[in-house]
């Protein structure tokens, strides 16, 4: 029975139920929206372009994040982690690899948009596939390191989901965190920021803005910024000094990214949105509306 398991330290029954409910909504909504994005790409021939393949790959990564959130929600309602130590390691790895891949694909889309709008260079299939394969392998490498001792996966404060353990803040953690963050977050933020700054300057010159270039970076920092701040705080101070409830805000915000990304990169993209509409309704979209360009 649920009542036989003690509450995690620092949480009330209401806290556990509320956080579990947030994770469930994030998980199910993000999975459904990204699943529609993925299936539309596979079913609508006009959508299958190299640029849209990056959006498709982002949706796959975000589906993984949503699955991770749904498992965490189920455990939260149980008030304990039912899958044991091995399950925790698997959950941590799966969540980490999909989270890193999501960040990388957001940067890849920014890079592609820069070339579309600023250099008028279209992405080729060979480049898109090579980039996607590299991203998944690169993220799998960094996510596998805690499994073999460089870094460590352990429970979040709610103790119903697992991620990189920042509670110790020891030399092993710091030596892993710094290069991992540089190659999987800092560089990506720079790519997103510089790409959309160049696009914003291009829009000013043409006087024909196609979207708000500041939104993708703001969304990225909203979702992943709290995790980054917490991770680096743990490198210099004892993270356990931060209240458990406040520390849980980082994963809650991070798991909103699958839903936010759908609205930014699929539904917010005119040609991809048209393809999704065609998939859902069967209404044929005119060819000029589904071109290889992001809106």
TrEMBL record:
One Pfam family here: 7tm_1
Principal place of residence: membrane
Subcellular location field: Membrane
Keyword Membrane: yes
Alphabetical list of InterPro entries matching this protein: GPCR_opsins, GPCR_Rhodpsn, GPCR_Rhodpsn_7TM, RPE_GPCR
GO cellular component: membrane
GO biological process, one term: phototransduction
Official protein name in the record: RPE-retinal G protein-coupled receptor
Lineage: Eukaryota, Metazoa, Chordata, Craniata, Vertebrata
Record gene name: rgra
């Amino acid at each position: 029975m649920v009542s036989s398991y003690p509450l995690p330290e620092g949480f009330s029954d209401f806290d556990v139920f509320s956080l579990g409910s947030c994770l469930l909504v994030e998980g199910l909504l993000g999975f459904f929206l990204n699943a529609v994005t993925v299936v539309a790409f596979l079913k609508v021939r006009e959508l299958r372009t190299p640029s849209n393949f990056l959006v498709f790959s982002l949706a796959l990564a975000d589906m993984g994040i949503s699955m991770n959130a749904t498992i965490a929600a189920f455990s939260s309602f149980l008030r304990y982690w039912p899958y044991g130590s091995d399950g925790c390691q698997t959950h941590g790895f799966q969540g980490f690899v999909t989270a890193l891949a999501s960040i990388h694909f957001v940067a890849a889309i920014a890079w592609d948009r820069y070339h579309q709008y600023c250099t008028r260079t279209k992405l080729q299939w060979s480049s898109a596939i090579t980039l996607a394969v590299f991203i998944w392998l690169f993220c799998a490498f960094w996510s596998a390191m805690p499994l073999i001792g460089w870094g460590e996966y352990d429970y979040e404060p709610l103790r119903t989901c697992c991620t990189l353990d920042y509670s110790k803040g020891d030399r092993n953690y710091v030596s892993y965190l710094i290069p991992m963050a540089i190659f999987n977050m800092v560089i990506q933020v720079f790519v997103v920021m510089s790409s959309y700054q160049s696009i914003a300057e291009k829009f000013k010159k043409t006087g024909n803005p196609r979207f708000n270039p500041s939104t993708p970076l703001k969304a990225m920092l909203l979702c992943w910024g709290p995790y980054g701040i917490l991770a680096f705080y743990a490198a210099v101070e004892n993270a356990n000094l931060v209240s458990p409830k406040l520390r849980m805000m980082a994963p809650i915000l991070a798991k909103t990214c699958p839903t936010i990304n759908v609205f930014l990169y699929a539904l917010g993209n005119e040609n991809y949105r048209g393809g999704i509409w065609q998939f859902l309704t069967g209404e044929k979209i005119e060819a000029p509306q589904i071109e290889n360009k992001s809106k």
